[in-house]
Amino acid sequence: MEQKLTGMATKSIFLLSDATGETAENLVNAALTQFGDVSVQLNRISNVRTKNHVYEALDAAATEHALVIFTIVNRELSRLVHDECEALGLTNVDILTPTLLRCSEFLGQTPNETPGLLHGVDDEYFRRIDAIEFTVRNDDGQETRFLNNADIVLVGVSRTSKTPLSIYLAHRGWKVANIPLVSGIDPPQELLQLEHKRVVGLLINPERLVELRASRLRNLGQDPRTAYADFEQVETELKQAKTFFRKQKWAIVNVTGKAVEETANEVLIKLKLK
Questions:
Q1: For residue 257, what pLDDT is reported?
Q2: Residues sharing a CB contact under 8 Å with residue 203, sequence separation 6 or more, in sequence order
Q3: What CA–CA distance (Å, rounded) separates 164 from 146?
Q4: 204: pLDDT strictly greater than 60
Q5: Strand boundaries in the chain, DSSP class E
Q6: How far apart, in whole angstroms, are the C-alpha atoms of residue 29 and residue 21?
């Protein structure tokens, strides 16, 4: 992953993990959002479980004078990474060890030091797989007869981020269905029969929606000057949608200018699932 800004030299961050490295990458990405003018290359190195692998990774990091961030549960290997970084003059951050030590003190137990437990194949893993499969099958109103099996149902007009938001939530274990609102077409009866506490209506600013729809039409090689991307038409659609949501007593989330993670968090909070 690379975040670049023209005119700035790119800095490197090496992420070392004895598992997938996803935890470290998510944390670093969250931290980087606090730095507006950055140009960073992230190098994720997974399954670092031998001394030779440590040496190889840190030799590469040294050639780029990189910052090294690591999540390694084995204390001996974690210490090796730290010591080698110090010897090479590399700034380094051990994310996991301080947390493990504090948890060990608090719980009165010694950690297992087994890599990859977070992403192991367990009941939670299979729950996420089931959620993803359900969400894909129930995208864009494809299988309304199964709506009652959904944990979350997203409703909105075209281009309100229903699908990406559904998939994001599914990867976190929620079964999600999404239903498009189309002018002149009644919503499915299965939707109206659902408990309102499971449904969220998605809104967006009309100006932004016009931009998104016009862009989609251009990408499809079509004329963007159609009713689909007409401001007055879009504004009417959104007003009707908002009225409909309120009538059904559904929670409402405005997705304008929000990352999918932020919108998902708001959805879960409004449905009292978090």
A1: 93
A2: 156, 160, 238, 241, 242, 245, 252, 253, 254, 255, 256
A3: 20
A4: yes
A5: 2-3, 11-17, 40-45, 67-71, 92-94, 152-157, 176-181, 199-203, 251-254
A6: 12
8-state DSSP, 179: E
Sheet holding 67-71, edge to edge: 2-3, 40-45, 11-17, 67-71, 92-94
In this predicted model, what pLDDT tens digit does every residue of 151-196 receive, in sequence order?
999 999 999 999 999 999 998 899 999 999 999 999 999 999 999 9
254: three-class secondary structure by DSSP: strand
- pLDDT tens for 122-145 read 567 678 888 988 999 999 999 899
| CATH class belonging to 2-119 | alpha beta
Sign of torsion, CA 162 167 170 172? negative
Q: Domain spanning 123-270: which CATH class is it, in words?
A: alpha beta
CA angle 183–200–197, rounded 5-degree value: 125
User: In which residue are the tokens 């506490």 written?
Assistant: 197
Pairing of strands 67-71, 11-17: parallel
Query: What is the average pLDDT score of the chain?
Result: 90
Query: Which residue's structure tokens are 């862009």?
Result: 215
Contact 104, 73 (CB under 8 A): no
Return the sign of the alpha-carbon dihedral for residues 154, 156, 162, 163.
positive
CATH 3.40.50.2300 residue ranges of the chain are 2-119
| pLDDT at residue 4 tops 90 | no
